[in-house]
Amino acid sequence: MSLPAYRAADPVRTYYAFNGVWSFLSALTFTLSMVYYVKDVGLSPLQMVLVGTTLEVACFLFEVPTGIVADLYSRRLSIIIGFMLIGAGFLLQGLAPAFIAILAAQVLWGIGYTFTSGADQAWITDEVGEDRVGRVFVREQQVNLTAKIAGTISAGGLGLLSLPLPMILSGAGMVLLAVGLAVFMREENFHPTPKAERETFRQMGDTFKHGLAVARRRPVVRTLVLISLISGLSSEAFDRLWSVKILNDFSFPSLFGTSDPAVWFAVLSLIGTFLALAASLVVNKVSAERVNSLHPNGLLALLAGIQLAGVIGFALAGHLWLALAAMWIGTVAGTIAYPVESAWLNRNLDSRSRATVISMVSQSNAIGQVVGGPPLGALAGRTSLRTALVVSGLILTPIPLLYLRLRPDRRTEVPAEPEATAAQAPSPR
Asked: Where do the Major facilitator superfamily (MFS) profile domain residues begin and end (predicted)?
């Protein structure tokens, strides 16, 4: 599948380029997508949640078959197909402001995302080697952050002209990115995965059974799987409905001579990005040795309690800045908790079962989102947004208690092994 050398670009520069473009274009789409759904398409709270549920289901169902394409045929081909489908999804939802079109767009770009998920990292690892790829990943994070900030600012400016305009330009840009990769992206070190090692639905079932066995044996693992499920039950509704509350309940003050929601949502996105970055820098101040020496149930219970208070505080707030402060405090608490919880989970896993159980934790969160989102969306339609958001927060109530009931168990808590110290964060969708 490699291209002629005279047309092929350096793989590291190609990796930085397409990840930077992806971050810019995704920020261009997602910064104002919720505003577009409410203002231009007129979606109800239930429809807003069903949009997210459709995306989650598409990603869940197609993760395995699209992974087979990357392993069997070509990482490069999988990435190109993925960006083409993502672009088509972005274009569809920008050009057709109707609920059915929005749902179809979620399916398109959700499937496209599964084509790219994992294939990009596997491709660059094949091309540059395992000894160099760590430095590439660190640099890629910096490129992505810079591109995301630029995309957010651009979305705010373009949104003043038309809310769907950023999505249309983003979709067209994704299609052009796929074409560019077809011309310049090389693949010289790809070797198809042996049949016995390919992921299949049968293997996924075996993986799930094995993960259940591990969870039954270790209380920390069992509890973290349950916490992930509960978190998913709450998060889908909140992630989709917070913007509806902001738009329906509050008026924005004038900023830069305008109170247009396009400008304000761009500003809110930027603030959220910088707060998350600051929180991650604070976490990095704590050494890995110190984190790994903790049985951090007390710390995680406190952070979970802050997240719960943030959701309910946001739901009940009658003032714009109080609502935003509550939401941001909860977001920062979650950002701090994630690496601590991930390290704790890894300390309770051995190398053979680590990837299996981490995948199971992520799947339990996705299942929670699919199961919990639609009922809360329907509740918002029958009662009020405030009621649905309060219930979304109350669902989180058992989590601090589940953390506190865990006690150190020296028979199962073992030092983290060097090959993995944190779980993979879920991809933003």
From this structure: 12-411
Among 63, 109, 66, which residue's Cα sits nearest to residue 90? 109
- Residues 64-90 have a mean pLDDT of 85
Burial per residue of 119-132, b for 16 or more beta-carbon CB atoms within 10 angstroms, e otherwise = bbbbbbbbbbeeee
CB 243, CB 387: distance < 8 Å: no
Residue 1 has pLDDT above 50, yes or no: no
Q: Nearest Cα to 350, choosing from 232, 241, 237, 217?
A: 217
Q: How buried is residue 240: exposed, middle or buried, by Cβ count under 10 Å (0-12/13-18/19+)? A: buried
Number of Cβ atoms within 10 Å of the Cβ of 366: 20
Span 190-211, pLDDT tens digits: 776 666 655 555 665 665 666 6
Q: What is the DSSP letter of 177?
A: H
**322 phi and psi angles, rounded to 5 deg:** -65, -40
Residue with tokens 């549920």: 53
The yes or no reply on domain 5-197 and CATH 3.40.980.10 is no
Q: What percent of the chain clears pLDDT 70, i.e. is strictly above it?
A: 81
CATH number, span 201-404: 1.20.1250.20
d(CA 396, CA 261): 30
Q: Where in the chain is the domain with CATH 1.20.1250.20?
A: 5-197, 201-404
- Helix H or strand E segment including 51: helix 45-72
Rg (CA), the chain: 22
Model confidence pLDDT, tens digit, residues 278-302: 877 776 666 555 555 567 888 899 9
Task: Report helix, strand or coil for 418.
Answer: coil
